[in-house]
Amino acid sequence: MGEDVTEQEQTRRFREIALPHLDAAYNLARWLTRDAHDAEDVVQDACLRAFRALSGFRGDNGRPWLLAIVRNASYDFLRQHRISDAHVQYDEELHGGAAAGMAMSVLGDGDPATLLSRADDRRLVNAALARLPVEFREVVVLRDIEDLSYREIADIVAIPMGTVMSRLARGRKLLLAHLGETMQESADGM
User: Fold this and answer.
1) What does the pLDDT average to over 56-75?
2) What is the mean pLDDT of the chain?
């Protein structure tokens, strides 16, 4: 009987700590795996891992804890299935040039988070975001889409907070460059 109470208590805690963050978990997994079905599998695996590791959870915010598990499960999935992400080295000359300037002039002062809220720009931003190298994409998603703090992102990604800020700045700049390129291609095609 004691075993049932423990299992029931663990299930109740899991529901309180992890389940409210399933949308964020799926969103992160989808951006990392770049596939909706793979993301569903990753989230299912991550939830199982989280349930098993629940006794070790300390704290009051389950969101960063669950997202760290999702991130690890995503990378494990990608390694198992030998899916590599295009790893593009950031180049200031290439990625910070006229395309980024054009995007800034057309888009105004909007940052990626503001752009995401505009339905007509969602497709454009999502396509540009998908082109980011994974180390930039994950911090942009965690900060600008999931609205996590720098500290939470640093804990999830297991990097120093300064690296989070650097990757976020570079990721945003590269995102704007990709947006500018897409806008230029659209303008040339007219």
Assistant:
1) 93
2) 82
* Spatial distance between the Cα atoms of 51 and 139, rounded to a whole number of angstroms: 25
174: closest CA among 110, 97, 81? 97
Q: Identify residue 14 by its one-letter amino acid code.
A: F
Q: Do residues 54 and 131 share a domain?
A: no
Quick one: how far is CA 62 from the chain centroid? 16
The range of the structural domain enclosing residue 7 comes to 2-80
- CB neighbour burial string for 172-185, b if at least 16 within 10 angstroms, e if fewer: bbbbbbbbbbbbee
- Name residue 81's amino acid: H
DSSP string, 134-166: HHHHHHHIIIIIT---HHHHHHHHTS-HHHHHH
Share of the chain above pLDDT 90, in %: 57
12 with 56: CB under 8 angstroms?
Answer: no
**Residue with token string 């900060």:** 143
Q: Which amino acid is at 173?
A: K
At position 176, the amino acid (one-letter code) is: L
Residue 172 has pLDDT above 70, yes or no: yes
**CATH number for position 109:** 1.10.10.10
Query: Global pTM?
Result: 0.74
